[in-house]
Design goal:
The structure holds two protein chains of two kinds.
Chain A lengths: L5 E2 L6 H27 L14 H16 L1 H7 L10 H22 L6 H6 L6 H24 L7 H24 L12 H27 L6 H31 L4 H10 L2 H23 L6 H29 L9 E4 L13 H24 L3 E2 L12
Antiparallel strand pairs in A: 1-3
Helix pairs in contact in A: 1-13, 2-4, 2-7, 2-8, 2-12, 2-13, 3-4, 3-7, 4-6, 4-8, 4-13, 6-7, 7-8, 8-9, 8-12, 9-11, 9-12, 10-11, 11-12
Chain B lengths: L5 H13 L18 E6 L9 H10 L15 E6 L6 E6 L8 H5 L5 E3 L5 E3 L9 H5 L5 E3 L18 E3 L4 H5 L5 H9 L4 E5 L6 H8 L15 E4 L2
Parallel strand pairs in B: 1-9
Antiparallel strand pairs in B: 1-8, 2-3, 4-5, 6-7
The chains are: A mainly alpha, B alpha+beta.
Amino acid sequence: MIKTVYSEVKPYTRGWLALVGGLTAVILAALFAVHTMEHQGHWVTGMTNQVVWGMPHVFAVFLIVAASGALNVASMGSVFGREAYQPLARLSGLVAMALLAGGLAVLVLDLGRPDRLVVAMTHFNFKSIFAWNVILYSGFFAVIGIYMWTMMDWTARRFYKPAALAAFLWRLILTTGTGCIFGFLAAREAYGAAMMAPLFIAHSFAIGLAMFVLVLLVAYKMTRRPLSDELLGRLLRLLGLFVAANLYFMAALHLTQLYFAGRSGVEAFILWEGGTVTSLFWLGQVGLGGIMPLIIAFGGCGHAPRKRLTMASILVVAGGLAQIHVLIIGGQAWPLDLFPGMEVSSSFADGRIHAYTPTLLETLLGLGGVAISLLITVIGVTALRILPTDLAPSTPDRME
Amino acid sequence: MTEVSRRHLLLASGAVLITRAAQARAPGEAASPSQRWGLLIDTAKCDSGCTACIDGCKAEMGLTGHDRPLTDAQYIRKLTVKDPMDGNTHFLPVMCQHCAKPACVDVCPTGASMKRADGIVLVDRHICIGCRYCMMACPYKARSFTHEEQSGQKPHLPRGKGTVEGCTLCVHRIDAGGQPACVEACATKGKGAMLFGDLKDPGSTIARRVAAEATTRIRADLGLGPAVRYQGI
């Protein structure tokens, strides 16, 4: 059996300082945006009484969904016994926690009253899926924290398997909960479907793995640690599988929607007539985030596995952002139907497609969440033994 | 502003006479589940150009706005509903429907969205965190987010920047034994299209009319049990 050696990343190198400095700068810019939004009020953003959730929510949902997916690499190793993934489990847990923290930060900082976070933590309406998610998100940190502890402390090794299983189940429930935030909205025609939960799970597999892979590749490149092509090829095939699953559930959702006569309007909007939303759906979500990664993974592309995996992961992340944008913005742009079959108009924008133009402020806030996730990851791999020194079995660093 | 004519005055006095006056609640007395406050709106009496209910609401609630239609609050709005087949058009006011099973209350994470025992749906501004999930869930687009600082606020309706707000059915008036400002304005300056009362009181005008005449509720198919009923649509 091969024993994996883990080591901390050396801090204060030129690359480390540049990375931390860059991420801190983005976070500071995001905090400035938050200050402006909270001081002036949300009217300075592109969000309105019609499109109430905007760019911050696109980033927040992306990061939260990716968080649960990033844990899959650890689960593949510990729950499903795939040994090749086991050395990556610690990084998988860390990235999962970091992504969730970044996503939650964006969500909280976009609240109308972020100073009332303590209210959200102390007042629970148990009929609200949102309130359940507050519990699920908090619990996710605790469950992965214990899971990481069982991985890093040999005295706690006997709890390793149960902790791994608990983390895997928790992440499935968590993503179900996130999908249900939309699935439970009966009046919004683009949502209100049980299919949201499995779609979110499949999507989390894809974008979570893509984010994890990008962190892994950059970390190993910057710290000059070896990575085997065999592992990279394996990750690429896994990513392809997850992308295919996401496409399948997405197709099932839209076919169901098209079959319901009352929802043909919103489907026509998303699939044919929605302008930016339609472009993002076909070019971003389906093209860049679906078909292209599948071709790269399984289409006999001649490039080296590292190059193919990098490109596929970047495309899946871009496509993932497009997918969540189509869902959140496209879903709200389509007006609520108070009188089905009738033409409605009012001073409150009833009956017409709602435009949404994000401002720099809310985009900065969203990017700030990504930067928070990455900064936590950098600090984590610097302070703890998270990264294996070597992920190429032929090199002498790896001990028998 | 519309001149108050003798006809309007008569209409208003008639509305006051035929509507059983709400019993004022003593300070500290809890709202009663034996009551269910509601509205009956006759769209045949709702004119296209009339904005009496909207103006009355704005004045009562201190909704001055910032001349930004996409972010300014609207507690009540006038809908133009046109049948694409024959072009027939109706006009009607839409506000919070004070549902029996309000989606906004179900989804609110902190319980800030709440329903009183007498069916009035409100937002507790002290624990609203401004997540806007209620706005995503409400099928009637009845709620607004307070996008910026507000001036000209009324003592009975403090409006907090960063929280969600909507029609309160003029709960402060109801608790004092009165009726909503929109209903009053419609009676005095409009054609008396709106009727307010206790749907659970079989002796009330609204309950008797709902029992005797056909009424509809917007998106009744969603099963939320709105307390606002319409005639003529």
